[in-house]
Amino acid sequence: MASRIPLPYSPKVLELFRNPKNLGRMEDATISATAGSLACGDRIAIYLKINKDDIVEKASFESYGCAANIAAASVLTEIIKGKPLKEAWKITWRQISDELGGLPAIKYHCGILAVGALRRAIRAYYKKEGGRPEWLPEHLTAEERQALEEEELMEKLAKMRKKL
Ligand code: FES
Fold it and tell me: Is the pLDDT confidence value at 35 over 60?
């Protein structure tokens, strides 16, 4: 019988997977966004409560991803609480990975999805507000592009699986 080799998760990833912070839908969110694809089950939603000074008052998430995705979203939502959107925007998946004591290479995309969802939420917020601040890049950043590419890839794989 084939046995699965456990992934080398750091103690922090395992701890946050078991006891995630800020988990759950936020009913009074100012804005929310998702990244990932339901087709393969890896999907994350980020909820933000933003005040009139563009500061993140509350952040939460829902994840249909793996342990690394849950831990990444947990850390991300902790880091951005109380931060101006301009600062929250600058957080990278590598920072998230470092905060978690490192992610296995095969799990990098789990952090990318979390950051991708956050950046989508920030873009959506300013779109709703009717103006893009000068610090918000006009074009998609690497993390947003990667999240998008992963979604497209997952959709393609799901379609291929259906055909089999
Ligand atoms: Fe897809 Fe972690 S979110 S494997």
Answer: yes
Work out the average pLDDT over 52-64.
96
DSSP-H helix ranges across the chain:
11-18, 67-80, 85-89, 93-99, 108-129, 142-163
**Total structural domains within the chain:** 1
| 111 Cβ below 6 A of ligand 1 | no
pLDDT value at residue 46:
97
> Atom of ligand 1 at shortest distance to CA of 63?
3
The pTM for the full model equals 0.89
For the domain that residue 35 is a member of, what is the CATH number?
3.90.1010.10
68 touches ligand 1 (CB under 6 Å): yes
